[in-house]
Amino acid sequence: MNFYQQSPEDVLSSLNTTDKGLTSEEVKKKQEEHGYNELEQKDRQSLFSLFIDSFKDPMVIVLLIVAIIQIVLGETIESIIILTVLIINSILSVVQTRKAEDSLASLRDMAAPSATVVRNNSTQSVPSKEIVVGDIVILEAGNNIPADGRLLEAESLQVEEGALTGESVPSDKEATILQEETALADRKNMVYSGTLVTYGRARYVVTGIGKETEMGKVAELIQNVSAKQTPLQRKLESFSKKLGFVILGLSVLIFAIQAFRIFSGNGPQDLQIELLNAFMFAIAVAVAAIPEALQSIVTIVLSVGTNKMAKKHAIIRKLPAVETLGSTGVICTDKTGTLTQNKMTVVEAYLPKHEQELYSSEPAAWSIGENRLNQIAVLANDSSLNEEGEASGDPTEVALINYSNKIGLPFSDLRNKFPRIEELPFDSSRKLMSTLHEIDGEKLLLTKGGPDVLFKRCSKILINGEVVEMTDEYSKILYEKNEEYSNQAYRVLAFAYKPLSKETLDLEDENDLIFVGLLAMIDPPREEVAQAIKEAAEAGIRTVMITGDHKTTARAIALNLNLFKEDDIALTGQELDALSEEELMEKLEHISVYARVTPENKIRIVQAWQNKDQITAMTGDGVNDAPALKQADIGIAMGSGTDVSKDASAMILTDDNFVSIVSAVAVGRNVFSNIKKAIAYLFSGNLGAVVAIIAALLMNWINPFTALQLLFINLVNDSIPAIALGMEKEEPHIMKQNPRDPNEGIFTGQTLQSVILRGFTIGIAVIISQALGIYYFGSPEISVAMAFTTLILSRTLQVFPARSNTQTSFQAGFFSNKYVVGAFAVCMTLYGITMLPVVRPIFNIPNAFGLTEWSIAAGLALATTIILELKKLVFPSKLAD
């Protein structure tokens, strides 16, 4: 049996303690057996280990082999360049990984530093880490609760448990026995580590410490949930493995063919030189095929996306999250503060036989009942607003004074005019609060509280300014109205008063009251959220609400936002637990609302969608959300949330607004589209170089490029245009398409066609250029210079057709991406530097290479761009890939 289902006496007995606390000897023995009240953390991977792991990528291994061989052969410049790029990429990877491991540190920071306990039959303060099961802890307002426990006594106790339960208002606590199994948020006789006492006093017995607390269970979930790779990371990793093996195989094959030719046709005096040349030829293929700057360019393009998202209130903590957002198919979102305003608001005022919409009449024309209703709401109220409009106090009470201000009756004026004489503070057991005031020369007791309780205390009712007896008919109307509000998920308070001649109060005074009216309030949906959910649906994204609130409230909000459809289902956490995995997978796509959920429930929901191959985003702000935030493909924390949730997330919303998620998805889709454009741009150029090298091999020509030329193009010349493509604006209809299939490869559809077409077009132009150098100009050295010029200019000009698979540069707006124009200008300048007399020898460009040769090479390069742009006009595509 659970502790909350047992009496205090039974709990104390089962824990071998008494209400007078433990002795020092008992405490020491328990600490030796069970350890201290603190969270454990697994050892983290060392920085050196992370650094080594970053070199396990197949393409990186190929480049390392190439660099080592070049060092042996004395080609130090090329090897230094390659090693520098690899080390920079590794450092970036280590930094990003280390940033993602801070969740448990934040959990530790939430622990209370000390606590007041009863030991050796006396009260004393001890460090929270020294608390053991069986300790008796004393709580007062403002205390952080140091460990889980069962209440023994509670006086008007309220605890802020939002970090664990998702509740937007403090929970009322009492020491009563709960008969049935209940969700954590409804266990009114239990308190939990890491939560805060906001009101009242209590004593409780500790039932769980350290990893056995609810907070400890969350910590264990965080540690056991593995970080998810993004779709792009998975595809790049898979592609890298395949490309690495293909490049190694191709290089070995080319060397074998060259070696066969050498041994078949040359004398032994040329053998060593020829084999070395053949080996360098094979290395050139590897250098040409591998886009050395790929990882750096992807990182830079993602960084550009983070800047765009920051302007839309989305702060990215982990760069790959930018791309993941673009492929998101399901958004599991919290309700409070994300879909709603996180601000309780009065939406309807009700008086018997008179119902009005909010703020529908002028205060000057109000009836006596309406004025009395507002007086009670403001005066029997402990909340306040400062001059800056910042609220303090219970959110429900804050809603009441905001209501008064809104209708033109400043709450401060009422309180100054009718000061409080005496009070009966709110108590969770009686669910009432009463204050005494002198109004218009008469002392009045003003009472507010839960409708069901207050109805029974009223013997009279105020109707149209006249006090009459409370009849069964009136009572029935009140109960029906309260039920109507409850079905709409409103939080309802009832208000009553009575004349009182004395100046001291006791609980008996809260009887024979005169009923005045009801105020219904709710945390209303954000006005802009319904449209954002609609836009997400048009983009093929499913929105699911997961909240710690009650099912009725959650379902009402979901209906209001058109998130809940006719055939949809709303489940509580307990109802979810009752479903088998098969039943859940069968019903999953019809469940739009989950209420009263646990951290384990949230992980299960996220995993269920992931098992359906859906890239899943999860929002949250509390400690209880952290495991699911880490499990999700992209965790989205609220800016107002806990540090734990932020550390476990990949993205933080500074405005806590669902609309910002949808805006960020649009940016993410555009970022992924631009990354594909950059990757296609890089591989198209590399394919062109490989095609030219293989053609030269088959024709038994000189190697058309040196390794340094290829490194210059790959690392310097191509990097700038690739980054510029990362600045490209959104393609038309990007948010009218379904999310891409997470199992889809990088090179599919139009992207693959584009890479092959551009690559072979460039390759053919280079082959023609080298052939002219050999056969027309009669110089192998000139042929190399012409091949290099054709390749570098073709790849530079290719940035213009690479901007879109569906539009030409002029259709997209030639100057709409000024970065592309700037990148072209920079690349042409860099190429011009290689033509300088002092630089030519470094790049194997002979002085005989003049204007005629350059014009032919440049003409061939320009022809490739014209062909690629004309293709879009002759064979147009409907949508971007």
UniProtKB/TrEMBL annotation:
The keyword Transmembrane helix applies. It holds the Pfam family Cation_ATPase_N. It is a multi-pass membrane protein. The chain crosses the membrane at residues 59-88, 243-263, 275-302, 679-702, 708-727, 755-776, 820-839, 851-870. GO terms for molecular function: ATP binding; ATP hydrolysis activity. Its main location: membrane. Keywords: ATP-binding, Membrane, Nucleotide-binding, Translocase, Transmembrane, Transmembrane helix. GO terms for cellular component: membrane. It comes from the Bacteria. Coiled coil: none annotated. Residues 2-75 form the Cation-transporting P-type ATPase N-terminal domain. It is found in: Membrane. The keyword Transmembrane helix applies. Belongs to the cation transport ATPase (P-type) (TC 3.A.3) family. Type IIA subfamily. This is Cation transport ATPase.
